[in-house]
Amino acid sequence: MFFAAGPVEAAVTNASLGITVDTPEVRGRVGYGDMPSVLDALEGLLSDGREWLLGAQFSALDVYLGSQIGWGVLFGSMENRPGFDAYVGRLHARPAARRAAELDDALATGGA
After folding, report:
1. What are the tens digits of pLDDT across the range 75-95?
2. Which among 42, 43, 101, 112 is placed 20 to 30 Å from 62, CA to CA?
3. Residues 6+ apart with CB under 8 A from 36
4. Mind giving me the DSSP string for 15-62?
């Protein structure tokens, strides 16, 4: 979770502000390297055949980091990488996620 709250958030924020990390000296000081390195790490987590970030067990990490990946890809603040779509699809297919979306939709249209 610290990777999500620190390096991922910093890399996405800096990229959205047009701040580039383009020299080895700067990459060493920012704490996350550069955006491609962050995305490589995320892609590596999702490319080894595991269903969830911690393996077979769904966890709060999936809720937190999965939301970052989903929103980042959706809004273009993160480059889509192999495995991201399938992972986010699994998150959205969970019964609890579907029910939460139904509740959100009902509230947005004035229902309850």
Report:
1. 999 999 988 999 999 999 999
2. 112
3. none
4. HHTT----SHHHHHHHSS--HHHHHHHHHHHHSSS-SBTTBSS--HHH
Domain ranges of the chain: 2-108
Least Cα distance to 86 among 66, 112, 111, 102 occurs for 66
Please identify which residue in the block is written with the tokens 């979306």. 101
Backbone angles phi, psi at 54, to 5 degrees: -100, 15
Handedness of CA 73, 19, 65, 110 (dihedral sign): negative
Q: Per this entry, what is the length of the chain?
A: 112
The reported pTM is 0.83
Domain covering 2-108 in this structure, CATH number:
1.20.1050.10
Nearest Cα to Cα of residue 6 among 38, 52, 28: 38
Q: How far is it, in rounded angstroms, from Cα 21 to Cα 111? A: 47
